[in-house]
Write a structure and sequence with these properties.
This protein has 338 residues and is an alpha/beta fold. 29% of the residues lie in helices and 17% in strands. The protein has an eight-stranded mixed beta sheet with strand order 1-2-4-3-7-8-9-10, with helices on both faces. Strands 5-6 form a two-stranded antiparallel ribbon. It contains eight helices and ten strands. Helix 1 (51-63) packs parallel to helix 8 and helix 5 (161-177) packs antiparallel against helix 6 (192-199).
Length: 338
């Protein structure tokens, strides 16, 4: 069945600092509040993916006076071009996502929006967290991580810790000869460099370290209001959604405020739960409770939607997109994790 967004949109494109053109869409409210939400899609996804969610978000954000932008990253589709190089989910270089996100923010600012909220879904969540931790961009007023599931944790659950270590060793050997060489087909459709970025602990992409005793260095640098949105039935979780939220709450020590939102009955891609997700995001944008910079939250305040908490908000879920055989998240129908 074909799903059509049926909301008025403008098609836009922006050129990154290194000359890559990113296509996308923008919806603008009739009565502006000077705020734009930039949605960064998941692994292998595109700006056109998830049209049901696009429609609901655009409508609700527009009613609240907030613009909505969603553009391709250079990691769109499984294989794509980034100038003369291969990109797409299988070949993109994670560190270059900083240029993509910066270009999106530049576009929003040129369109007249003074405050920007970054919302990253699945692998997009890795990218926006990495961006803000390293760029310290003062134009960003808030950060939303949707479906922030660790690829490493998911792969350990799928193939086992020992097997994953073996596969990483194989990819390291291949990458020394040619970083763009494909790993064995059983590992998924990835270049050796991309496989290591996704599945080797300690890589720049490894920002959600709940699967090990990590220090969460990227998350600890975030000072703006932060929301974590996870589906109750996210198929890539290795623990309960409430436990995941609590892990983020414990390590978001510098964020001015923290909101943990669990969407009932939602999977990684939030399919069928678009309305609860949109309501949760618009409500959070309207409130964004402030906490004095540097102040620590009391434990009871850390996860306002954990299971079992009184008055907890429990919204929906989302997933990242990736090549079909890899075990990662996606924004639309099931596939591998991001």
């Amino acid at each position: 069945m074909v799903r059509v967004a049926r909301v008025p949109v403008s098609l836009v494109n922006v050129r990154t600092g290194d000359g890559i053109t990113l296509a996308g869409l923008m919806t603008e409210p009739r009565r502006r509040r000077g705020v734009a939400l930039i949605w960064v899609h998941g692994l292998g996804s595109t700006f056109t993916s998830g049209q049901a969610l696009i429609a609901v978000l655009a409508r609700r954000l527009g009613a609240a006076g907030v613009a909505y932008l969603k553009l391709d990253t250079r990691g769109h589709h499984v294989v794509a071009r980034a100038g003369k190089r291969l990109a797409g989910a299988a070949f993109e270089r994670f560190g270059e996502s900083v240029r993509d996100v910066r270009a999106m923010i530049d576009l929003a600012r040129r369109a007249g929006y003074r405050r920007v909220i970054l919302a990253g879904h699945s692998t997009g969540a890795n990218k926006v967290l990495h961006y803000l931790a390293h760029a310290r961009d003062r134009r960003v007023a808030g950060l939303i991580l949707l479906g922030p599931v660790s690829d490493i944790a998911g792969e350990i659950t799928r193939v086992g810790r020992r097997e994953l270590r073996r596969r990483v060793t194989v990819a390291e050997r291949l990458a020394r000869r040619d970083p763009d060489a494909l790993v064995p087909r059983a590992f998924g459709f990835w270049s050796a460099r991309r496989y290591l970025s996704l599945y080797r602990p300690g890589e720049a992409e490894d920002v959600f370290q709940y699967y090990r005793a990590g220090r969460w260095p990227a998350l600890r640098k975030i000072r703006v209001p932060l929301a974590v949105v996870i589906g109750e039935r996210d198929e890539y979780l290795d623990r309960s959604a409430a436990s995941l939220v609590e892990a983020f709450a414990r390590h978001a020590t510098a964020a001015r405020s923290f909101s943990g939102i669990v969407i009932p009955r939602a999977s990684h891609g939030f399919a069928g739960q678009e309305e609860p997700v949109a309501r949760a995001l618009v409500t959070w944008i309207a409130r964004r409770p402030a906490r004095p910079r540097g102040a620590r939250r009391p434990a009871s305040d850390r996860a306002d939607a954990s299971a079992g908490s009184k008055g907890a908000r429990r919204p929906a879920r989302s997933r990242k997109r990736a090549p079909a055989r890899s075990g990662r998240r996606a924004e639309s129908p099931p596939r591998s994790r991001r």
